[in-house]
Amino acid sequence: MTNQIYPCLWFDGQAKEAAEFYCSIFNNSKITEENQMVVRWELNGKQFMGLNGGPNFKFNEAVSFTIECETQEEIDYYWNNLILNGGTEGQCGWCKDQFGVSWQVVPKVLGKLMAHPQKGARVLAAFMKMKKFNIQTLLNA
Hints:
The protein has 141 residues and is an alpha/beta fold. It folds into two domains: 1-56, 2,3-Dihydroxybiphenyl 1,2-Dioxygenase, domain 1; 59-141, 2,3-Dihydroxybiphenyl 1,2-Dioxygenase, domain 1. The protein has five helices and eight strands. Strands 1-4-3-2 form a four-stranded mixed sheet, covered by helices on one side. Strand 3 and strand 4 (46-52) form a beta hairpin. The termini are far apart.
């Protein structure tokens, strides 16, 4: 029996627009199903569903999607694309896209740097001052 778990995101009539936006950013992504009420898509093989539910609910930071990045180029790519068309920058690698969905664009090495006995506190202090993460600054902390 297959029991796949995937997020359903509530949009105010913008589910297809959102799916197209996300599929344009992430490789190996596609819209898999759509009708007036629901759009399903895959990002890097992970399933998502968008519901055209109306204006009753809004996104907030209680739920976010994390993108682990190997390089600064990846961080720059995802960050810059996610904030296009009215998205906003947040602190410590957080941003919101034009639909209000929260994202964390983080370097994969962050956990290792924070766990380092001598550098951990300096790394934390460095990234608390950042909006978009800068890997080299973290490595130099």
